[in-house]
Amino acid sequence: MVDTVLQVERLTRTFDVSKPWLNRVLERDEKQFLTAVDNVSFGIERGETFALVGESGSGKSTIAKLIVGLLKPTHGTIAFDGQPMSFESGAAMRNLRRRFQMIFQDPFASLNPRWRVGEIIAEPIRTFGLASGADVSREVARLLEVVGLSATDAGKFPHEFSGGQRQRIAIARALSSKPEFIVCDEPTSALDVSVQAQILNLMRDLQDEFGLTYLLISHDLSVVRHMANRIGVLYLGRIVEVADAKRLFTDPQHPYTRMLLDAVPDLALSGRRRTPVTGEIPNPINPPTGCTFHPRCPHVMDICKREAPPQTATATGAAACHLLTEPALPE
Amino acid sequence: MNATPLLSVRDLVVEFPTRRGTLRAIDKVSFDIAEGEVLGMVGESGAGKSLIGAAIIGLLEPPGRIAGGEIRLRGERIDTLAAEPMRRIRGKRIGMVFQDPLTSLNPLYTVAEQLIETIRTHISCSEREARERAVALLDRVGIPAAARRINDYPHHFSGGMRQRVVIALALAAEPDLVIADEPTTALDVSVQAQIIDVLKEICAERGASVMLITHDMGVIAETADRVAVLYAGRLAEIGPVRDVIQNAEHPYTRGLMGSIPTLTQTETRLVQIPGSMPRLDAIPPGCAFNPRCPQVMDRCRSDRPGLVQRGGRREVSCWLYEAAEKEARHG
To answer: Is residue B204 part of a domain?
Structure first.
């Protein structure tokens, strides 16, 4: 039986990016909307790492914020462990809240500089009433050691730590409410590669130890390849392809996925030939009609300009491309 | 190989006087760049890679200063030049591309004005000739409809297009050397590949040498002929890209290469280097890497290793190879 921790259905979020009212009246402009997330559906199974990968403007961070409730969806539903998430606070929601946490990109911004590390980690423990009295500091000490810091670090302030150590503190705080599911939004993008390796290894160890489920959001395909079981590729707010990690890298179905893979610098110096990448990401306020990738697609057909392609089942997932429904696939 | 290198840096020392003593940010770094060569300069944050670039073009931010060594461009010393002759070298003989294209472009002038001014400052030609050259350059760096877009302001261009304009600007006076400091770090991966290709091709066409400063080994692998690895302001290793990437000799480079996730690997854990790079006021005696080195010996803690010549134009700063070399000589 498949045990789905998180189910996202037809999630859409638009932002009003109109000019102020007076400008609209004087310049006879209409209201403008940016669809950051457009009809996105996916499910995450218990114990797996599901990754969302995309370039800037693909809506990956907006999805993270929608899932943890920092933004409200315009349409669509998010269900955690079978229970739909409501965005009004209440006892049920509060209980649900404890079970998922988030790690942010910038460990310099996500920790309160005026709080000691011990207080930062203890806050969720107290808020959710998981321990009291001396048990709290014992739990803080244990968590600090779990993430590879020392129990005596609890008395220090965040500025006394390096970027990698701060990210460890952020992870300890995320773990303090004993969550099952953690949303990691670019957890290592602000770090140097040698420190990134430490954090990625730590995240894997913690997953094994506590049976965590991760939603990993990243622009870095090699990080995603290293961490994820399944991957969703986003382009301009839509999922263009979902597949098992291995399959996505060996047998990409969507032309955009292929282009992304080709663009990754080749550290193996294999001298592989690559298709030159063309064009840039269009303005999401006025996305192209039909398939939003069509202006950059090497296989573009007439239908791509008119109709948005449906999700078509592939070997281990799905992809949204008209080529997959056409009888003749180009090589 | 006795020809004078285009750029020769010998025992460069950059210091920052502070109230608590003088910090040595660059400590006796030596390297050459041959005519037409692309040298990659790689290191983690704080390793001093950008400072070396700034020292070469005479743009060190005070109180930082060159405290020793010499920099020669085609045999002529440039580190001791006064401000005015140095200004003529910048732009004319050494072009620059920085990470954020907006720091190189003036938002108040059109691209045409900036390009024409640069061309006419360094090359004597008429306004019309300068404009023709500018359009040809923009066209060459891949800006569509260059003749029309040249009259736009920098904010009219996307991030990738702006970086193309900056490359055009850096090459406008046909310099011998282009110093590119993290030219693609602010860009998406699909745009990064395009910019790297443009930079590489256009410099090769004009015979310009490139010093490419980056933290991204993948970019180096795709672009550079040789690579210099910096650690804590010192050169750890320098050699042809393929050798350094596939067969690193310095323990730091080995750790660094192992910590990079790749698209093809299957290992579940990344190699991790314990700890982090020391701060400038706490560089350990002996080899700066010794507290983190898996192969540390007694000698590493007290004596600083010099650059040891290895086969195939490689140099490594590590006692492991000093010993091997001596044995070979005596045995």
So the answer is: yes
